[in-house]
Amino acid sequence: MSQLFDSQFLRRLERIRRHALQGRANRGGDRPSSEAGEGVEFQDFRGYAPGDDLRDVDWNAFARLGKLFRKRYRKEEGEGLAIVLDLSSSMGLGEPAKERQARLLAGGLGALALAWGSRVHLFLAGRALQRASFEGKNSVGDFFDTIEQASCQGGKESLMQAAEAIESLPKTTEIFVISDCQFSEGPDALLAILARWRIRGHPVELLQIAAQEERDPFSQNDAVSRWQLRDVETGESLLCEGGKEAVQLYAAAWEEFLQGLSGFSRRHGIGFEAVGCEESFDEPLLRVLQRESA
Amino acid sequence: MSLQEPRWLWLLGLIPLLLWFWRWRAPLQEREVASLFLWKKLSRHLSDAGHRRRLPLSAYFWCAFFAALALALSQPKRITSDEPRVLLLLENSARMQAQLSNGATRFSKLQEKVADFLASLPSCSVTLEVLPDAQPLEDSPAKIASHVKAIAPDSRPCNLRRELYARVSAMRRFDLIVIGSDREIAMPDVAGEANLQKILVGAPSNNVGWVGLTRTDAGYAAIVKNFSQQRQTRKFEIWSGGVAVSQRSLDLAPGEAREILVAETQFPEGTTPELRLVPQDELALDDRLFLDELPQEMRVRIPADLPEAFLRAFAAIGQLRAIEAQGATPLPGEAELYLRDRPQGDSSPALVFHAQGEVFVPQVLRANPENALGRHLDFAGVELAQAWRVTSTMEQPIAWAREEQGKDWPILWSEGEDLHIAFDVAKSDWPKHPSFPVFWAAWVQQIREQRSHGRNLLHSESSDTNGIASDMSDRSVGWSVFSAGKAQPRESFSDLALALACLFFILAGFLEWRGR
After folding, report:
1. Is B45's Cβ below 8 Å from some Cβ in A?
2. pLDDT attached to residue A123
3. Report field, pTM of the whole predicted structure over 0.80
4. Strands ordered across the beta sheet of B396-403
5. Is B53's CB within 8 Å of A243's CB?
C-alpha cells in the first residue's frame, strides 16, 4: 500500500466511482476502437486459453461445436484519457503541497478511467516530460506507482512539451491538465495550448491547484511588511514592501488571475476547476465528474 | 513666520535617519513563490501608488516629536503687525531737574534728545511711559513727541532700576525699548530678544572711585577701582597742604582695582596727603554713581547722642535710602529727610525733616564740640549743610528715619580718634557690595577734605555737552535692524511647539511600550 494512495483514498475513490458510475456508464463511448477489448460490440472469436474470463466463453458455440471459444469485443476509443500532471518545482509549495493534491487528483481520475476500461495516458511534466500509458484494471497499481514516484522539480518547460505529445492521441481523448498555472510570464502560453487542444476536438479540463498562502499570502504574518520573494523555478528575486495596500492589491490581482483562467476556459469550452490544497481530493473530483455527466 | 535659532533645524535631519532605522528594523521575510508574475504586478502598483511600505504609528510620532522639538528650539515667531513697536521709558524724577551748566535741566535736555529720536523713527507705534508713575500712552512718533514736549517736571523720587524690572515682562512685546535717564547704571538689562536703546542725559558715568588713603610702611596708599564697563584713563592729583604736588595717570580696565602709592613717608610732616580725581571736561566726579548701585537700602543704627548729625552727614552725601534711627531725636516716630534749597536763595542746601506732619528746617549745622558729630575729630569743623550742592528747587526725599523702640545696639561709636560704624548685615547686605568700600572711603575722604580745605569735593556740575544718545555696543545690531525699518513685532510659538513635542513623545513612547 502506497503512502499517497492509501486505503482511505481507495475508499473515497470507490464512493466516487459508485456515485458517478451510472452517468458514466450511460454515456459510453462515442465510436468503436480498432482494438479488441472489453467493449460491448462483438468483434470475433478466439480459442479459450486458461486464465481467460469464463464470462467471455461462448457457450452456444461450445454446445454446437464442443470447443471452448472466447468472444472478443471491440474496444471503444472514446474512453481514452490523458492526464497532464504539472510536477514543476512550484507544485512543491504550499502546506500541504500542491503536488500532493495534484497527484491525488490524477490518481483518482486515472483509476476511475482504468476501472471503466479506458486507456489512460499519463504525462508527468517535471524536470523532463515523462509519458506512460495504462490500460485495464490491473494496471491501476502501476499507475499509482508511476504517479507517486515521479519527482517534483524543474520548470514549466516540460509542461509545454506535453502539447506536442498530445497531438498523437485520438481527438476524442479527454485531456485533464492539473497545474497551478503559475508561469513566470503568466498563464497565457498554457491557455493557448489548451485552446489548441480544444480546437482539435479534445474535451479539456483544467484543474488549477492553489495553496492557501497563494490565495492570501498576508494572512499568516501581519507583522511582516517586507518580502524578499524568490521564484522557485527561475530563481528570480523581487523585494516587495507594503502593508494594507499590498494586501488589497494582491487580493485583487489574485481574483483577476482566477477570473482570467475561468473566463478563458468558459469561452473555449474548457472545464475549469479551482482546487485548494487543503481540500479533500474527492470533492473537486466529484465536481468534475458531475459536470461531465451533466 | 521667522526662526530665532534656525541652527536647531539640524534636528530635522534625524527624521530620514529614523525612517531608515524603521525600515532597517522592519523584518524582512524571505519567501519562495511559485511565480513572480502576480507579485510583479503588485510591486508595480505599490510603486505607482507611492506606498512602498507601511510604517508603524509610533514611527510617525517619533518623527513628529523631532520635528516639533526642532521647531521649539528654533523659536519660531510670527510677525503680528507691519508696524514695529517702541517702548519709550523716560525718567522724570526730581534728579532730572538738576541744571546743566547752560541752565537747562537734565529733563529738558532729555526732551530734546527724545524729540530728535522720535523724528528719526520710521512709521511705528510708540508707547510712552514717564516714570515714576505715568500711565502708558500709545501713539505715533509725532504725537508722542508732542506729549514728551509737554511733560511737566516732577519732584518725586524714582527708583529707575526697580521700575524697569517691574516692566520687564511687559517689555517683551516691544521691538525696541528706549530708556531716557541720567543714570546709565540704573538701567537694567531687558529681555534678551528686545533691542535696548539708552538715552543718557547729564554727566556720563565716572565710575572711578577710590578707597581712602591708608597709611602703610611705604607711605600713603589708596585703592582705585574702575566700576565702569569701559576702560578709562584717569588722572589723579596728590595734594598736600592745599597744594597739588604731583599727578598720576592710571589706565584702568573694566572692574580693575589698583593700589597706588600716593605719598611716601617723607611727606612734609604736619600735612595730610590727599588724592583727588582730576575732573575732566566730559567727566565730573560724581560719587552718586555708587549710590545708584545700591541694591538695598542701608540701615544704620546710631546712638541717641548722634542722631541728627549723623543723619545729616549721610543725607548730605545722599547715601542713605533709609535709616533706622534708634532714639533719634528730634525725630520721634517716622520721619523723612529732605534736601532742598535754602529759603533764602542760598545755593547751599538745607536738610528738611518731615516728622509727624510737621516740617523741620534745621539750621546749618557745623560740627563743633557741642554736638555729637563735632566731638569726633574727623568731623570737627565740617559744615554738613554745605556738603551737598542742591540739585533741585523742589523738595526731594532722600532718606527716611523711623524710630524703632526696644533696640539699642550702639553700632556707631567712637573710640579715641576712630569712628566705628557697624552695619546690620542681617537686614542689609549692602556693606558687602563691591562698591561699599569705595563709598565709605570716599565719604570719609570727603569729610576730611571738607575739614582741611573748606571746600566741597562733592561739587559736581554736569556739562550739557555730555547730553548724549549713547548706543551700547552690544545693542547696536538691534538698533540698526530697527532703523532699517524691518517689522519685528513677533508672537512666539516656542511653547506651543514644545508642548506638541512632549505630546508626541508621550504618544510614541506609549505605542512603543504597548508594542512590546
Report:
1. yes
2. 92
3. no
4. B323-325, B396-403, B334-341, B349-355, B358-360
5. yes
